[in-house]
Protein 1
Amino acid sequence: MSDPREAVADVLRGLAETLRHHRDLGVSEIALTHDPFPDPADALRAQEQALQGCPRCKLSRSRSTVVFGSGNPRARLMVNGEGPGEEEDKQGKPFVGRAGQLLTRMLASVGFDRERDCYIANVVKCRPERNRNPEPDEVAACNPFLMAQIDTIQPPVILALGNFAVQTLLGTKEGISKLRGRTYMYRTGVLVPTFHPAFLLRNPGQEFKRMAWDDLKLARREYERLTSTTTPHPDPLP
Ligand code: SF4
């Protein structure tokens, strides 16, 4: 982007969207006295707090815990899954069961440390009973929260896991096998679709593993390409 006015306009557009999401989430106060750009860790904390006890959809009846998200608020890679499972619902963290352990290894295989380099969240924050797919009204109710997370973190690269997350984020009904293998422009960066680790556990064949490995390498290349030209969130003042 060569025109600095365009860069400033982009930042302001992002800020306006984040503030709109905060308003929709019921966050009534953001300290603007010193820094007009809220620290992403503070912004995510405020969003998480605003979600406690959320009654906005019927998944509130099947959950024990709202699983907001976890990881580095300044991450340049965001990982998006479908929704919490049984273990995640118990612990209040995304991807902590068997699929989560595989995800950690998948990320590490291309040099990403899960805690240091990534922020992980799901399309819906509450566990659907018997791990059924979330329904359209539930996704619609929860969508502003995921969008607020994305607009706060502004990740150059999003790794979207599985049919459900990819279809929801890209607004398509096309299956993951057709969608994977390439990147898509998405908000402030690119989206890389790949298989959900739970699917890979159910289908341990080499073919899916190889495709997932290709997708992860693609995500890594995009990460290198985009983080060498984008300014990371500045560290907060001491
Ligand atoms: S899934 Fe999202 S919208 Fe529904 S109750 Fe949980 S936090 Fe609220």
Protein 2
Amino acid sequence: MARRSKLARVAALGLLGALTLSGCGVDRELFAIGWPDGITDEAQRMRDLWIGSSIAAMVVGVAVWALIAWAAIRYRKRGNELPRQTAYNLPLEIVYTIIPFIIIAVLFFYTVTVQNRVQDRSDTPDETIAVNAFKWNWQFVYPETEGDDGLPVSTVGTSSEIPILVLPTDRTIRFELASADVIHSFWVPEFLFKLDVIPGNENGRDNVFEVTVQEEGAYVGRCAELCGTYHAYMNFEVRAVSGEDYDAYLEARESGLDTFEALEEIGQPGLSSATTPFESLQNKNIDQQTTGG
Ligand SMILES: [Cu+2]
């Protein structure tokens, strides 16, 4: 009897050890469970936290299942004799109070560390961009620039044109979000981050965050707060380019070129590629209806 229980304990421990090891050795991507790759410094950290938490949850889950199975088999009913009662087993109770506490403390530590990093703001960000949300589109203003009309350079979306938010890589970018009407939410899935855009800021929220983009490319951005009839079409595009291209883009804008022309000027497509404007979707639907397709 004693030998069998010892064997079961060794097997359970071995299983737990193997799982912990495989958690480290096996492709970590498996534990991303649907999270896209982030393109910012901050996103990488959040994704690592998420993967670490998934692995920890999986290890705990498997250990619990193994213990349940072991207890059910090892102590199954064999006769009518009442088994030995082990209530008020103090050492055991201390162990299963301390272990979860350690798990929570570790998760809490990493969560707070990553959260502080994500919410961190530098005193002097390299770039500042004002984002204005309204029903139902976006305006992006570069406050430190001056166009040929004397106003800061800006890009505004319409139902026939997706607004393109041009960003530099490898620079800290501060976003200052404002809403002209209702609550919207600024969301770039590849940032692994969204922030509500609250009109007025009366409640003390300041709607500011910072990121450093690592990867060049075109990424869709969305409104993530149901804000009315055309909420679903409130898309924009993030176009991340190199620092030099970004400077050249803003220079072209300051000289009077519009978003399309300035993008073409730096060798980028002038129109969005990550998402489609509302009107072209509408026309497509009408085309499909008239052609019966
Ligand atoms: Cu919205």
